[in-house]
Write a structure and sequence with these properties.
about 210 residues; alpha/beta; Rossmann fold; Arc Repressor Mutant, subunit A; 2 domains; 5-stranded parallel β-sheet; 9 helices; about 55% helix
Amino acid sequence: MSQAAARVFIVDDDERVRSALARLLRASGYHVESFESPDAFLDRADLAGTPACLVLDLQMPGMNGLDVQRNLKQLLPIVFLTGRGDVSTSVEAMKGGALDFLPKPVCESLLLAAIDRALERACIEFAKRNEAAELQERVNHLTRREREVMVLVLTGRLNKQVASDLGAAEKTIKIHRARVMEKMKARSIVELVRLAEKAGLYRADDK
């Protein structure tokens, strides 16, 4: 998914700052959603529908920016804003996966550049999550026997060898193998190996 469809979430308890940031980002072509508190953001924001990043105030009443970061578990790239940040806090934020840590009042060009980097990362991670979910869906459609056949096929065994290992007829193994290829949407054994490795079902060094 392209950055054009991505969103920027703003969380800041200062209404003036929140409104100014939203105006700036909308004028720069971003899709913006703003929230007055971490609780409102975590309760109402749709974090799964499209790629997104978060512009997050560090110091807020109640739950602060680092609390939100820990809650999200690196689900979104975060650009922190603070008027009272210190070295230890910024180090903690960066260790938690923050993309940038910018002081208030924020320089517009630095903020826009940081958001571009954040959305680029968000799009990449979003595509990876979607691919993983789709691949898992394919795996879920395999029967237990089809998984057993796939694992043996991936080790390089021929149909007759798989049949011997599983105590089945070679003709039956051919049918299972064809169904595995169809359900996994693999056009070759090489592609099946790649898909199985991505799904965590197989490692080439285990052969």
